[in-house]
Amino acid sequence: MPEAVLTLDDIHVRFPVKRNWRGQARTWAHALNGVDLTVRRGETLGVVGESGCGKTTLAQVLMGLQQPTQGQLRWNNDRGQPNVQIVFQDPQSSLDPRLPVWKIITEPSYVKGESQESVMRARASRLAQQVGLSPDYLNRYPHEFSGGQRQRIAIARALASDPDVIVLDEPTSALDISVQAQIINLLFTLQREHQLTYILISHNVSVIRHMSNRIAVMYLGQIVELGDTAQVLARQRHPYTRLLLDAVPVLGAPLPESGAQAIPELPGNRVLPTGCFFLDRCAFRKQGCEQQQQLKPVSTETPMHSVRCHRYDHDEPDGK
Ligand SMILES: Nc1ncnc2c1ncn2[C@@H]1O[C@H](COP(=O)(O)OP(=O)(O)OP(=O)(O)O)[C@@H](O)[C@H]1O
């Protein structure tokens, strides 16, 4: 098994949302509520879940932009500092419109102390070729490129500093359908060539299915199911994962009757449930579900497929 790049151990993040007259926080939004995760070199880990479940907060923790309020994040490198780059959904707003492309691409190297223009231009030229852009265009500005080309520029910039992990935040959702496949293929090629590790954040289960080796399903700031993508998609164990996947229309299949498989809205995160976070919405609730649940292997035969559900406690391996 490839080595771990990073390990998250019981990560919690909460944000103050109301303060008293002394400025002390009275109410909190609990964005992450005990995330345990190991990310391995060269893999693509897909993180899926509806709006507000904590995907962005998780990315911010990985990038060091948000300190966990509890828990530990360990990077397996000897530099002492991790290097995490991000590719955003909308390349239009993530690229500085005032800079020529060669400067945008080499910004991370510049921050690392490389400042000679000829060196940086040569580096930008190599990176441009790697992502399928002509080096002849490097003096141009972002608005002179198409959406797909701009996303290639953003990917080149992410590659520039030899990152431990690249977070892909909905990397294709702002692009034309015809361009999406090209960008996905480029990401695959680069991953193969450079042993890149991706964390892919998306609402789009089809993109996650296509790109990820493993999938983490998030609900209310927790991972409720984690495992090999094919395994999780073929046999979802958590009732929330089932709802999430049932809500994805399948080409050629009849649409579900309206309301029949509606995903229950994410409950508020100001006051967390004391037991299973999904309890109120679960059709399979049983005695014991009022207790907090841990992420545990579904069975001893599938140790890499974990679920946070009382029905899969070891004494009842078939999830009855
Ligand atoms: N700075 C903040 N202050 C207060 N609450 C916040 C802050 N940032 C995030 N939250 C809350 O934390 C929760 C998780 O938000 P987050 O943006 O991580 O979710 P998400 O899954 O990325 O959603 P989306 O898919 O819409 O981007 C939400 O309830 C959000 O309102």
UniProtKB/TrEMBL annotation:
Keywords: ATP-binding, Cell membrane, Membrane, Nucleotide-binding, Transport. GO terms for biological process: peptide transport; transmembrane transport. Residues 6-245 form the ABC transporter domain. Pfam families: ABC_tran, oligo_HPY. InterPro entries: AAA+_ATPase, ABC_transp_ATP-bind, ABC_transporter-like_ATP-bd, ABC_transporter-like_CS, Oligopep_ABC_C, P-loop_NTPase. It comes from the Bacteria. GO terms for molecular function: ATP binding; ATP hydrolysis activity. Belongs to the ABC transporter superfamily. NCBIfam families: oligo_HPY. This is Dipeptide ABC transporter ATP-binding protein. It comes from Advenella kashmirensis (strain DSM 17095 / LMG 22695 / WT001) (Tetrathiobacter kashmirensis). The lineage of its organism: Bacteria, Pseudomonadati, Pseudomonadota, Betaproteobacteria, Burkholderiales.
